[in-house]
Amino acid sequence: MRLLRYFLYRVMQMFPIALFIVIINFALIHMAPGDVSILLAGEGADPEYMASVRQSYGLDKPLYQQLGAYIGQLLQGDLGLSFRTREPVIGIIAERVPATLLLAGTALVLASVLGVVIGSFMARRPGSALDTAVTTLSISLFSIPVFWLGLMLILLFAVTLRWLPSSGMMSIAGPREGIGFVLDVAKHMILPVISLSAVWLGQYVRLARSSVSETLAEPYVTTARAIGFPERRVMTRFALRNAMLPIVTVLGLELGLLLSGAVLTETVFSWPGLGRLIYEAILSRDTPVIMGAFLIMSFTVMLAALVTDLLYATLDPRVRL
Amino acid sequence: MSKPILHLDTLRMVYNADPGFLSRLTGRADPPVIAADDVTLELHAGETLAVVGESGSGKTTAGRIATLQERPTSGGVLYEGQEVTGLTGAALKAFRAKVQMIFQNPYDALNPRLTVSQSLAEPLMLHGLVPRSGLRAAVLEMLEAVELRPAESFADAFPSELSGGQLQRIAIARALIIKPMVVIADEPVSMLDVSIRSGVMNLMRGIQRDTGVTYLYITHDLSVARYMADRIAVMYLGAVLEEGPAESLISAAAHPYTRLLIEAAPEHRATAVKRNRIRLPGDAASQSGLPPGCRFHPRCPLAQPICREKAPPRAALGGGQTASCHFAHEVKKTGLATMTTA
Amino acid sequence: MTPTLVKTVRATVRSWPGVLSLTVLLGITAAALAAPILSLPDPADMAFDLYQPPSSSFWLGTDNFGRDIFSRVVWGARVALMVAIGAALLSILIGSALGAVAGYFGGWIDGLLSRIFDIFLLIPTFFLILLIVALFGASLPLTIIAIALTTWPRSARLMRSQVLTLKSRVYVQAALAAGAPHWWVIVRHVIPNGIAPIITDGTILMGMAILTEAGLSFLGLGDQNMVSWGSMIFEGQRHLRLAPWMSIAPGVALLMLVASLNLLGDSVNFAMNPQLRTRGGAPKRRASVAPPKGEGPATEETPILQVEDLRLEYTVGNRRIAAVDGVSFSLPRGGALGIVGESGCGKSSLGSALLQTMPNNAELTAGNVRYDGRAIILGGKPVVEGGRSRIDALRWTRIATIFQSAMNALNPVTTVRRQMMDALRLHRPGISRADATDRISEVFDMIGIPRSRMNAYPHQLSGGMRQRAMIALSLILEPELVIADEPTTALDMLIQDQILGEIADLRERLNLSLILVSHDMGAVAESCEVVAVMYAGRIVEIAPTRRIFDNPAHPYSRTLIGALPSLTGPLEKLESLPATDTAAAAAATGCRFAHACLAATDLCRKTTPPAMNLGGGHVCECHYAEDFAAETAADKREVRA
C-alpha cells in the first residue's frame, strides 16, 4: 500500500518531465531552419497531406495553440507519417522496438551481472596489482567507441575467421520457427551483444568495485566479522546487499546512454532495430521518424527510472515510502 | 541590574513551516521542526552566560540567531537596547564587527587554501580596521595573544599542518582580532581532546579577564558551563527551562531536568559509591511534535497530572534564578526526592 | 600552491596510470598543435595511390581517395581536441555558474534548477543532440554547442552539491559571520575549494564529448569540412574488407585519447582521495601458528584475558606507524578494565587487535593474547587449531563487542530482530524459530527495548535505542567477555547515563567481564574497577580506579584528570597540555611524554622509563613515578585537612 503511494508520487513527478521533453521537441521544430509543415510532413509531401498536417497541428494559429494541438496529437499516439514510407511513425517504431529490446536487454543483463561479479571480486583486494590492472582495463573498455569495437569484431570474427555472421538478425534462408530459429538469431546476436556489453562492462566493473569496497569498509561489516559470519556471507548478505543500492541507481540512470550505444551498434551490424531505423531516417532526412524516436526513447528512459526507483525503494528501507 | 548588552527576546524558529504544493498533495510533507520555541536570554557586558542543552535543545539555533546568521520566525534580537533583528547592509556589517562567533569544528574552521595569516587578516580587511601595511603586525600580535609561538611560523602555515588545538586557537584569534564586544562560542572545545580542551578554556577566560569581552558559551556539558560561566541557562526542546547564577543553579537546581543532568554527569572525583540511577520513562525528545503541557513531562520522574495539561510559568526563585516548573520551589529545596511518593 | 595541491600533483605523477595518460595526452596535443607546421601531406589531397596498405611512404596507408591516413589522423586530433575542450569548457562554465547560484542561494532558484538537472538526467541526451544536429545541419560549432547543452547539468549538479557542502563549512560560515559579502565568500572561499572535482570531472566530460562527436560523425552527421576520426571510421566501414586500416587507425587514436582522458581523471581522483584505492577489502590471510604444547586447564583464578607485549603497526604509504606499542595487562574473570586515552593513543586499535578485526593495512608485529588460559595470539600471529582460528571459535559465543555509533555498526537494510536472529542461528544452527524468538525477546526486555520496536530498522530507532539494540545484539549469545569501544559517545547526557547504567547492571547480573574503551574518564571511573591510561601506543599507567583518580603517578594521567572541570567539587584552574602532536611523540627517544611534560628531565629525554611497580596493582611508566605518587598523596591530605 505504501509502495503504491510512493509509486503514484513518483509517477506524478514524471508528468512535468514528460511535458518538458515534449516542449523541447516542439521548440526544436519551430527553431529549426525551414518550414515547420515541411519538417512535420516531410519534404516533397503531396499538397493534400501537407494541408491536413497544417490543419491537425493548427499551424496557422498562435504558438501556444499549436503546442496544445501538438500535445493533443501526441496523446492520440499520432507521431505523424514517415515521409519515406508514408506509414504512421508510431507503427514503424513499434515494429522495431522488439529487436532493440532484445539486443539492449541482453547486453544490459550480461554486462551488469558480469560487472558486479568481477567488480566485487576486485573489491576484495583493493589496491592490489590485479585491481589496478582491471581498473585500467575497464577504463579503456568504456573509452572504446562502441561502433568501432563492432567493426573490429566483424573484421576478426566475420571477415578473417568467418566464424560468425556480420550483419542482420537472421539468415536470409534460415529457419523461421522452432529451436533452429532461436539458434540462428542467437548466432547473429553474439557480435553485437559483445560489442555493446563490453563497453558497458567496463562501466559496471568500476561501479561495482567502488561500491562494494566502500561498503566493505563500513562498520557493520566489521560487526558481521566480529560476530563470526564467514567471509562469503559477509560479502553477500552485508556488502553486496548494501552495495546494490548505488549500482541499481546508476543502472537506471544510464539506460539512456546504453540505448544510444545500441543505436550505434545496430548501425554497424545492420540490426533491424530502432537504431537502424534512426540511421536510415537520418540518411533520408525523415524528420518525423527522428523526432518520434527521440520521444519514444525519452519515455522509455523515464519508465526505466521509475522502475529503478521502485526497485530501490524495496531494497532500501530508508527510502521514505 | 544593568541593561543587557545582547538580549534575545522570546525567539521562535520553525523550519519547514511551509511544505511545497506537491508534497502537501501527496501527504509527504516534512513535519515542521521547531528549533526554538520560546528563548529569552540576556547577556550582560563582561559576563559569560553558558547555554546548556542536549542536541535538539535549540542552543545552537539561539547562537546562530544571536549573530544574525539566521533570522528568527518571531521574536527579536536587541544589541545595547537597539532592535537589530532585521538589519541589512552596512548596519548589519557594523553589528558583525561587534558580535563575533567561534564555531565547534576546529578542523573545518579555516579555508585550507589560505595561510593562517591570510585567514586572520580577512576580518581586518573586511572592516578596514587596519591599513594594509599593518595587517601582518596585527596578525602576529593576535597569534601571540592566543599563545601560538613562534607567531611567525604559525602565520605562514597552512591549516593542514596544524593540530586541532592549534586550529581552534586560530579560530578564536580570528573572532577576536576585530575586538568585538560579544563572542558567541558554540561548543568550541567539544571536538578537542581533554588535555587540549582545558588549555583553550583557560585561554578564553584569560582573554576575557584582559579585554572584558562578553561570552555566550554554548555547551552540552554542565561542568564546562560551570567552569566558564557566571550564569547558566538550561535549554530543552527549544525553550529555556532554568536560568541562574552558575553556583546556585548547580548546588540548588529548581528544575527536575537540571537535577537529572547533574546526576547524569559522570563524576570521576566522587568516591566509589555507586549512584542510584533513575530509569527514565520516555526516550530522547523529538522537535517535530511538542507535548502538551510542560515540554519535559514525558521524561520527568516527578510529572504530575497538572504537568500534562498546563505549561508551567517561569517562576522566580530569588538571587536571579528562574525555572519553568510547576514545582520549582519544592525541587529547589528537596531535589528529586520531591513528591516521589505521590 | 597549497600543500594539498602539491600532494595531489605528486601522487598523480607517481602512479603509472597517471604518468601513462599524461604522456599520451601531451603527445596527442603536441601532434595536433604542430599539424600545420609538420611536413605532412595535405589530408584532403587526393592521389592515385588508392587503398595503399601501411608502408614506409604511407605510414598508415591511404584511403579510397588515396588520401594519406596518418596525416588525416593527426589533423583529426585537432577536431577531437576542439570538441573536447570546447564542449567541456562551455559545459563547466554554464554548469558551475548555475550550480553555484542554485547551491548558494537555495530557495526557488534552486528548486527550479534542480528540476532541470533532474530532467536532463532522464533525457537520452545522445538522441537530443542527434535531433538538434539533424534539424539544424551538421557543423562543428553546432555539435559542440549541442553537446555542451546536454552536459552542463552534469557540471551544475556537481557544483551545486559542492557548494551545498561548502556552504555549511565552518570557514564559510565564519567569513559570513565576520561580515563578508556574498560575492567575497563565493570568490574567495567557495569556488577555490569547490572547483577541484569539477575540473577532474572535466576530463570525463571531454572523453564523453569526443565519443559523442565521433558517434554523430559515424552516423553521417559530422562536419563535412573537417577531418574527424568518427567520419574516417564512417568512410572506412564501407571499405572494411578491402582496406581495414582505414577504420583501424582512427579508432585506435580515439581509444587512446579518450582512455587517457578517463585514466587521468581517475588518477587525479585517487591522488586526491588515496583511501579510495585501498579502503575496504576482505580480510587478508595472515600467517598463523599452531597452539603451544602443554597449556594447562583453566582454573577459577585464570584471568579471562591476558595480554603480553602486544604490538600493532599500520602501514600508510611507506610509513609504518606503531599504534599499539607493547601493551600488557590481564583481566580477571568478572572484572572490568577501562582503557582511557585521547585520540590517536591507540586505544581503539588495541580493541581491534584483541578481536582480530583490524584493517588490512594493520599488522600485529608481536605479542601474546590468552583467553581463559589458551593462547589465541602467539608472537603476533593468530593461533589455529584443527584448521580453524581459535578466535573464530570464541566469536560472539564468548567474546562480543559493542561498537561506537550504532547507526553504522548495525546493517541498515535489515531489521534489528533479523540481525539478532542471524547471529543466533549462525552459532546455534539447531535452534528452533520459536526458541530464537523467545531468546531475542528476553534480551530486549533485559536491555529495556520495547518489544514493539523489535521489527524496526536501525534508522527508525533513536540514538539511544539503537545503542541499546547494539548491546542486545552483543548479549544474544550470552558471552563472557564484552569489549565496548566508546559505547556512549555521541549520545545525549541523560541517555549516556542510562546506557552506562544498563551496562553496569548487566555486568552484575550476567557476571560479564568488560573492557571499556573510552575517552571519557568519568564513564570509565564509574564502570570499571581498574583503569589503564594509554598514551602514544602504550599503557603508561594502570591502577585500581580509585587509586588512579585519587593518586595518579604519571604526569600525563595527572594532567588528564586535572584537565576535567568538576561539577560539584571545588573550582580549580584546569591543567592542560601544550597543543602539540602525539604522533610526533611516539618517534622520539626516551619517555614518549617528555616533549609535553612539565617535569621532564634529561633522563626522561634520553632513557625510556621502566614500568615502576607501586604496589597494589599500580604500575606506572615514569622515572619519577614514586615521587609523584608520594607527592599527590601528600597534596590530597593537605586538601582534606
Automatic annotation (TrEMBL), chain A:
It comes from the Bacteria. SUPFAM superfamilies: MetI-like. Residues 97-312 form the ABC transmembrane type-1 domain. GO terms for biological process: transmembrane transport. Pfam families: BPD_transp_1 (PF00528), BPD_transp_1_N (PF19300). The chain crosses the membrane at residues 7-29, 101-122, 134-159, 179-201, 243-269, 289-312. Coiled coil: none annotated. CDD domains: TM_PBP2. It is found in: Cell membrane. Keywords: Cell membrane, Membrane, Transmembrane, Transmembrane helix, Transport. It is a multi-pass membrane protein. Its main location: membrane. PANTHER family: ABC TRANSPORTER PERMEASE PROTEIN, DIPEPTIDE TRANSPORT SYSTEM PERMEASE PROTEIN DPPB-RELATED. Belongs to the binding-protein-dependent transport system permease family. This is Peptide/nickel transport system permease protein. It comes from Primorskyibacter sedentarius.
Automatic annotation (TrEMBL), chain B:
The keyword Thylakoid does not apply. Pfam families: ABC_tran, oligo_HPY. GO terms for molecular function: ATP binding; ATP hydrolysis activity. It is a peripheral membrane protein. It is found in: Cell inner membrane. GO terms for cellular component: plasma membrane. Residues 6-262 form the ABC transporter domain. InterPro entries: AAA+_ATPase, ABC_transp_ATP-bind, ABC_transporter-like_ATP-bd, ABC_transporter-like_CS, Oligopep_ABC_C, P-loop_NTPase. Keywords: ATP-binding, Nucleotide-binding, Transport. Its main location: membrane. It comes from the Bacteria. One of its GO terms (biological process) is peptide transport. PANTHER family: TRANSPORT ATP-BINDING PROTEIN (PTHR43776). This is Peptide/nickel transport system ATP-binding protein. It comes from Primorskyibacter sedentarius.
From TrEMBL, chain C:
The chain crosses the membrane at residues 20-40, 79-107, 119-149, 170-191, 203-221, 242-264. Residues 275-301 are annotated as: Disordered. The keyword Flavoprotein does not apply. It is a peripheral membrane protein; Multi-pass membrane protein. InterPro entries: AAA+_ATPase (IPR003593), ABC_Ni/Peptide_Import (IPR050388), ABC_transporter-like_ATP-bd (IPR003439), ABC_transporter-like_CS (IPR017871), MetI-like (IPR000515), MetI-like_sf (IPR035906), Oligopep_ABC_C (IPR013563), P-loop_NTPase (IPR027417). Keywords: ATP-binding, Cell membrane, Membrane, Nucleotide-binding, Transmembrane, Transmembrane helix, Transport. Residues 77-265 form the ABC transmembrane type-1 domain. Residues 305-561 form the ABC transporter domain. One of its GO terms (biological process) is transmembrane transport. Pfam families: ABC_tran, BPD_transp_1, oligo_HPY. GO terms for molecular function: ATP binding; ATP hydrolysis activity. It is found in: Cell inner membrane; Cell membrane. One of its GO terms (cellular component) is plasma membrane. PANTHER family: DIPEPTIDE TRANSPORT ATP-BINDING PROTEIN DPPD (PTHR43297:SF2), OLIGOPEPTIDE TRANSPORT ATP-BINDING PROTEIN APPD (PTHR43297). Belongs to the ABC transporter superfamily. This is Peptide/nickel transport system permease protein. It comes from Primorskyibacter sedentarius. The lineage of its organism: Bacteria, Pseudomonadati, Pseudomonadota, Alphaproteobacteria, Rhodobacterales.
